[in-house]
Amino acid sequence: MARIIAGTHKGRRLASVPGEGTRPTSDRVKESLFSRLEVYDALEDAVVVDLFAGSGALGLEALSRGARHVELVDRAEPALRTLRRNVTFFEAHRATVHRCDALRHLQRRDDAPIELLFLDPPYALEEQELTALLAAAVPQLHPAATVVVERDARSPEPSWPEGLERFQERAYGTTQVWFAEPS
């Protein structure tokens, strides 16, 4: 069971998505990732979009650490039930759950520019699908946005579309994380 590591909801446990098909981010990876995001000043008052949200662990951690609003996006019914449960449990009025395909959500979105984007897709997601998601995100991004892509350590680096460039990467055991920003 995942937990919130820091912030206003520190220590609270999150319901997990039952069954297969989701791969929760380990607490070790999450702690390192969020420490880095705090150094980048990417959390305070940020508009966050968490694609392939699963239980909402990344988006709700961002809320706990000072994000203004988080959009939790998933299309799998077990994940959506878990997301709604976790949002209700946390009384997270600054979180919205979206039942939608990630690409469609980015193409239809007309809210405030994204300041922090999490892409933690299933490892089986094809590279061209990931590239399409990144390309669809570019027009949605705030000029100072941070994009975080989490994949299996054996995955190749994403193909960054025009308008987005990697500025850092980190390996955590079997997990690889890339950080990108608008160029």
Automatic annotation (TrEMBL):
Q: What is its EC number?
A: 2.1.1.171
Q: Which InterPro entries match?
A: RNA_MeTrfase_RsmD, SAM-dependent_MTases_sf
Q: Which domain of life is it from?
A: Bacteria
Q: Enzyme class, one word?
A: transferase
Spans annotated as Disordered: 1-26
Keywords, in A-Z order: Methyltransferase, Transferase
Q: Which is an annotated GO molecular function term of this record? A: 16S rRNA (guanine(966)-N(2))-methyltransferase activity
List the protein's name. 16S rRNA (Guanine966-N2)-methyltransferase
Organism whose genome encodes this protein: Nesterenkonia xinjiangensis
- Organism phylogeny: Bacteria, Bacillati, Actinomycetota, Actinomycetes, Micrococcales
